[in-house]
Each structure stands twice: as structure tokens, then as C-alpha cells.
Amino acid sequence: MSNTDRHPLFIPVILVGGLIFGFGLGYSHMARPEVVLNFLQFEDFGLVFVMFGGAAVTGVAYAVAPRLLDSAPLTGDDFERRLKSFDRNVVVGGAIFGAGWGLSGICPGAAYASFGIGNVTILWALAGMFIGAYAQGVWRSRTHDADPATAGAD
Amino acid sequence: MLTDPAALQTGLDLFPNGISRYAIGGIFVGLGAVVIYVATGISAGASTFLESTLSYVSGQSRFQRYVASRDWRLVFTFGIVAGAAVYALAFQDGGWGAYTTDVDAWRLLLGGVLVGVGTRIGKGCTSGHGVCGVGSASRTSLVGVATFLLVAIGTAQLVAALGVTP
Q1: Which residue of B43, B63, B67, B76 is surrounded by the most CB atoms within 10 Å?
Q2: Candidates B34, B112, B128; nearest CB to A129
Q3: How many angstroms separate the CA atoms of A35 and A45, rounded?
Q4: Which residue from A54, A64, A47, A140 is spatially nearest to B127, judged by alpha carbons?
Q5: What does the pLDDT look like over A21-33, one tens digit per residue?
């Protein structure tokens, strides 16, 4: 879909969705690394309610939306569940992410929200995330470019 | 039979700050994702923004796949920042900016690097895998969530055992 073909409400809806999403991350205190670390150290299990509360809400939408509507009104796209192919990367990447999450207490969405509540110290984590994303991008660009057979595989 | 007060206390200690802030916040997180999904069919995740935004400044081939989505991902992230700011202005004790983390800068920076590498190689983060993927009953996401949760618990416990606080 090129940008000029977009429904005029596409960007406003993305913005509203982001606003609600970010409000929830702030309200749930996920924007505070200490709260996440308290969960990981078994001192406060509240985070379970955030992740699975959120997943329960999306689960209803994933089940109901395709039955009520033929396609998404703003894009015409089919309603598909979020299904990614499974391979070794899911476990390797998940373990690296887990080490970083356990060390810092912050994940990407919560880091954006943490900046939003005025926690400027979180810029250290955001800088790290961009450095890490860039490093893996350089490495994967080289390995993919060097081996055409894997190009496009993800 | 009276309930053993000690056992009751232990149960309450699982949630020393109650559950309402977590449950209500989680419902909002889910609703934000649902608004986007129902209108557009897109399962939004937060970590793709890192690579899609790098495509503005880097010609690395890996980032080019995100050129088409990079503008709305920027808007999505701006919305997250602004939505959290609304929370802080309206509800946070002391208002906007009253809280800053005490977690050491080196933990945030080094942890951030690992988060940046891991979420992108592992095909998602706590929102993509954790909220949208689990909501989709995706086996890949369930394995991803189990992996990063277990490793994060082990890492956080190890760091605490080594005496690094916070």
C-alpha cells in the first residue's frame, strides 16, 4: 500500500491506538524498571496481569473481528492472527532479549512510555536498543547479502 | 476452621501494590492494540520501530524492508510517548517528571543493547509476542515468551544475588 492510497483515518487511528497503549503502559507502572525487576525477583507478580490482561483483550479481537467484518475497514486487508514462523532465532533472540530485560528491567514499548512520563534516565536504555538493533542489522545485512539463498528469509 | 493468617499474608504479599493498576493498565495496552488491529488488520509491536527508524539514516539492506511502514511506526511510538505523558500529567504522584529510575545507567545501556539485538532476532518483544502473539495463540510467540521470561528471571535474580541494587 503506497502512502497516497491510504485511508485518511489510517494515521489518526494509529495515533489513537498508540495513545491508549502508552497510557496503559504508564498506568500499569511498566514504564518503571524497578517494578519489572520486582516481578522478575518474585517480589510483585502484578506484571502477569498486564501481559495476560492485554493478551486476553487482543485475544477477543482476534477471535471476533474476522467474524464480524470481511476485512479491515481502513486497509481492506484480511484479519490475520499474529503468527510468525518458528525457528532457532525465536529461542536465541528470546534468550538475548531476556538477558537484557532481566538486566535493565525495560523493554521497547515500556521504554518509549518511560520517556513519556518524564524519566529522562531511560534514554540510556533507548540508546542501547538502537545500538543493538543497528548491530544486528549490519550483521544480518552482511550474512544475507553474502548468501542469496537466505535473502528474504525471516 | 480458621484460615491461617500467616498463609493469608503470604498470599497478599504476591501483590504488595494490589492488582488493579496492573489489570487496568494491561486492559488499556490491549485496547490500544485492538483499535489498530480492528481498523487496519495490523498486529502492532513496539520493537520493529527500532529498525524501521534506522532505515531513515542507514542504507543497510536489513532495514529496507521497513521503509513502507516506518512513517506509521513513528506515529505509533509518538502515541505511546504522548499517552504515557497523559497518564503522568493526570495520575502520577507528583505529576509529570516526578519519577526517574534509580537503576544504574550501565544496566540500562547494556541491557538496552541486548534488548535491541534480541527482540529483532527473536521476532518480537513483550508487545508483539507477549500481547499480540499470545492473543493469537501463536505457538512461536508462546515459546518466545517462555524463553525471554525464564532468562529474564534468571538474569534478574543473578544480578540481585551479586548485590547490584537497584
Answers
A1: B76
A2: B112
A3: 10
A4: A54
A5: 999 999 999 999 9
